[in-house]
Amino acid sequence: PNKLYYIAKNQSDIGCVFLQTKHYIAAKHKFSEGLKFTNNYKTDPSLYAALLNHFAYSEFKMDSNIGLENLLIALKISVNNNDQIGIIKSNSYLAEFYLDKKDTLKALEHNKVAHEYANKTGNTNALLRTLNFYTKAEPEQALKHAQKQIEILNKIRAKEHASQNKLARIEFETSELNTDKETLLNQQKII
Fold it and tell me: How far apart, in Å, are the Cα atoms of 160 and each of 45, 61, 156, 164?
């Protein structure tokens, strides 16, 4: 990647922070700046699609009547380049857009695609987001989706716990080795 890529990526990363903190005007500005540095989508289609996708989502969050066209373009670029993360994100944003427009059927279609790709790639964060979306779009099945979320969170916690136990065991064994080493050094001094 060239220097312009890193500048665009940096703008994207900063924009994502603004997006997460709901500072949509600042986010839109950063994504717009990033788009200027990508030149065109042929240079790095995944980055271009991500910037365009986030830019459009920022527009949508500021004014719910705009952003659709760019969201669809970003999705098309992601699909054409088999960018699975981009496909997940674009479909998630489109699902939210259509739910806002009270088009639950289209919203569920896009969320389903995002959910399938999240499952396929093992992206637990995206999987949790799609399940959370289902609880909003299908309130009558909210309990079912919430239970799936809890199941995933419990699996994550179990993995974290196993990792902590493994680290504790390594720390204990290292401590034992250090104690043994000190004992041997003291015995050598005596001899």
Answer: 35, 34, 6, 6
Reported as type and span, the H/E element at residue 152 is: helix 142-190
Give Cα separations from 141 to 19, 102, 136 (angstroms).
29, 18, 9
Per-residue pLDDT of 90-135, as tens digits, reads: 999 999 999 999 999 999 999 999 999 999 999 999 999 999 999 9
Calculate the alpha carbon distances from 74 to 44, 88, 100, 112 in Å.
13, 11, 19, 18
Are the CB atoms for 60 and 71 separated by under 8 Å? yes
Strand spans (E) along the chain: none
pTM, two decimals, is 0.79
